[in-house]
């Protein structure tokens, strides 16, 4: 169970002022295991902040709903400058590269704020997170059964997409006559709603790009999701969990990264096929570390991409 920890207060955070404090003992088990919800939100997207803070205020005291002022990639040093951007770089490509960089650094900022505040367990959210389940019922209780065991997990995704979904079903339940699974997974895509343990804060901060010059890192990995899927989430020391079905996806709305409206299928992580491969526990554990072949392929794929961007500038997304 989460313990009392210092609360973060700064000009970069805010919380719903009209929410009455919620006694810890009356909260649902999931929310009792969260020290703070850190919501990444652009200053001009007050509509998104009002929507999601309204949801969170039903489950957390006001001082545990923390707004993280999102970073705009277009304001970063080096944007639209050589060597990564050239005159021939399409505007759409520049916009998407800036959006991905801003997203990555905003998540980094949230984790850094959480570490500095002394939080042990945070729910990291993007402001378009769509709570299809508010985790105050049996599904949330099932997730809480994992969270309360500090030694069992490092990240818990409440929604995600993964093309090659190798997983281990740690627990299978039936809720309202429908199957519900708690799964161990490898690093996925879609970091819009995940519980993160303080144990990995420093490792994530060390692995994510330097805010002063993020472009070499971005040219290599492309996004925070790609880094988690291909590096961080393939570390056998990092224990990542998820549910099936997913509980929190994204609202189909304007994407500041893509520069367009997301489709319903994209927001639900259903725009591409998923190949699910259930494994027993030992087989799953063996599947997590990158093989030598995978390491070599990644070095070639991402190294070549960064070299081309360094020499000729970004040409495609």
CATH class: Alpha Beta
Radius of gyration, whole Å: 19 Å
Strand content: 15-25%
In the sheet with the most strands, the strands line up as 2-1-3-8-5-9-7-6-13
> What is the CATH fold-level name?
Spore Coat Polysaccharide Biosynthesis Protein SpsA, Chain A
Domain unit count = 1
Any overview of this molecule?
About 35% of the residues lie in helices and about 20% in strands. With about 325 residues, the chain is α/β, with parallel strands linked by helices. The chain has a single domain (about 25-310), classed as Spore Coat Polysaccharide Biosynthesis Protein SpsA, Chain A. The strands form three sheets. A nine-stranded mixed beta sheet has the order 2-1-3-8-5-9-7-6-13, with helices on both faces. Strands 4-10 form a two-stranded antiparallel sheet. It has a two-stranded antiparallel sheet with strand order 11-12. A hairpin with a 2-residue loop joins strand 6 (about 165-175) and strand 7 (about 180-185). The protein starts with about 30 loop residues before the first helix and ends in a 5-residue tail after the last helix. The model is unreliable at about 1-20 (pLDDT under 50).
């Amino acid at each position: 169970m989460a313990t009392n920890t210092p609360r973060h207060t700064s000009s970069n955070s805010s919380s719903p002022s009209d929410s009455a404090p919620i006694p810890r003992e009356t909260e649902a088990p999931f929310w009792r295991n969260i020290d703070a919800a850190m919501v990444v939100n652009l200053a001009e997207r007050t509509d998104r902040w009002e929507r999601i803070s309204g949801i969170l205020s039903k489950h957390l005291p006001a001082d545990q709903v923390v707004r993280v002022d999102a970073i705009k990639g277009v304001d970063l040093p080096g944007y639209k400058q050589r060597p990564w951007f050239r005159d021939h770089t399409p505007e759409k490509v520049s916009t998407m590269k800036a959006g991905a960089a801003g997203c990555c650094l905003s998540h980094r900022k949230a984790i850094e704020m959480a570490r500095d505040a002394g939080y042990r367990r945070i729910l990291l959210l993007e402001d378009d997170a769509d709570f299809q389940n508010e985790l105050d019922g049996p599904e949330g209780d099932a997730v809480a059964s994992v969270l309360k065991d500090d030694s069992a997990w490092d990240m818990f995704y409440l929604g995600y997409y993964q093309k090659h979904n190798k997983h281990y079903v740690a627990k299978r339940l039936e809720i309202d006559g429908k199957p519900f699974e708690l799964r161990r997974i490898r690093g996925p895509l879609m970091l819009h709603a995940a519980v993160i343990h303080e144990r990995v804060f420093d490792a994530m901060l060390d692995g994510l790009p330097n805010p002063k010059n993020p472009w070499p890192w971005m040219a290599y990995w492309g996004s925070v999701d790609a880094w988690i899927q291909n590096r961080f989430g393939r570390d056998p020391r990092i224990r990542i969990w998820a549910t099936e079905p997913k509980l929190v996806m994204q609202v189909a709305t304007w994407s500041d990264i893509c520069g367009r409206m997301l489709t319903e299928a994209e927001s639900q992580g259903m725009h591409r096929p998923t190949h699910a491969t259930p494994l027993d526990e030992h087989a799953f554990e063996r599947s997590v570390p990158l093989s030598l072949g995978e390491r070599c392929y990644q070095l070639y794929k991402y190294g070549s991409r960064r070299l081309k961007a360094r020499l000729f500038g970004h040409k495609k997304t």
